[in-house]
Amino acid sequence: MNNQYTFVARKPNAAYHKSDIGFLVAVLLLWGFGLFTIFVCSQDYAIRFFNNDAFYFVRRQIICSLAGFAFFVFFLVLDMATLKRLVMYFVFISIIMCLLTFISPLSIEKNGARRWIRLPFNFTFQPSELIKFSLVLYLACFFDGQYELENEKERDVLPCVGVFLLMVILVLLQKDFSTSAFITVLGLTIFFVTGAKLRWFIPVSFLAIPVIVLLITSEQYRIDRIIGFLNPEQGASTFNFQVNASKSAISAGGFWGAGIGRGISKLNEIPEVHADYIFAGWSEVMGFFGVVFYFGLLVFFGWRGYKAAFNCPSRFAAYGSFGCVTAIVLQSIINCMVVCGKLPSTGIPLPFFTVGGSSIIVTLGMCGFILNASRCEEKPEKIDQFEEVNIDTLTIL
Predict the structure, then answer these.
(1) 326-344 pLDDT, tens per residue?
(2) Helix or strand or coil: residue 392?
(3) Which of 107, 202, 227, 304 has the greatest number of C-beta atoms within 10 Å?
(4) Which residues pair with 6 in a beta bridge?
(5) pTM surpassing 0.85?
């Protein structure tokens, strides 16, 4: 029996294709090797200070990773239009959380700095990590909107600069100079990539140089870090001890590594090696081969991430994913250079590796956004609510 049918089909408002499996594999490998390194490097410290519980930090990292993968799924499954509408709420929450660090009952003070807020079950969160992500999304949303303005005279970056400076100042007031400097570099990179005129950077540069010098010289520990970087032999038993110990651990790894549990430098010489100097522990255990493997994996991660950003037809998704990939890769490079003594000591964590719930949650959230951007396809030229589709013949057997 042959009949002619006509039916009405709803056209999708956005088109998607399969996610970048290569990028997903890179994320899972980095997370897995990070967890493995935490297990290897934190056992001695956990046994000594947490009632012989060798899995203390590993267990906490897994719990935080579960929250991080929930964040990952959230930014993966929502369409970009919805995420764009949620950006200002995300920025507002990030700023409020930063303000909570200045309220004594809700915050935690360590070494004279208030960078963490208290959470239930003895967990803490560092809002400055969330600021990195919210800044990237805000700038992506803002410059996407500016691009859509047909009249160039209507484009104004002052509101964007105001929010940008507010975030930097809030982090700086937490006595977190390293993170505030990193956020500044990240923000300026996105400004440049989105087409900001070069003349805007000239007055900022002249203003930034004296401010940076003033901030560095205002704290003794910052001066010590600069001195230690310029003269590694000075302060060998004090402010330069950790850097020299980490370089010794890296050298002890040799080509193939000392092996799991066989290294002694990471356990006895580097204070809290599971934190920002965990790359030294990885290098000692895995050796030069492991270092090359890590950087190869990081390059692959960056390649797939930037490919998703450059191929994405949505400007918001492209700008946002570019910023997220840059944040993760740049943090990784800075941390490794600090551990190797090629940069002054900072508090920048190594993504996926450093123990810390704030870092892993935000990092996985960024990865979810990047993977979402990798699925975007070009939207149809004309979006109608309905389209009439004709089928000449339909044979029913």
Answers:
(1) 999 999 999 999 998 888 8
(2) strand
(3) 304
(4) 390
(5) yes
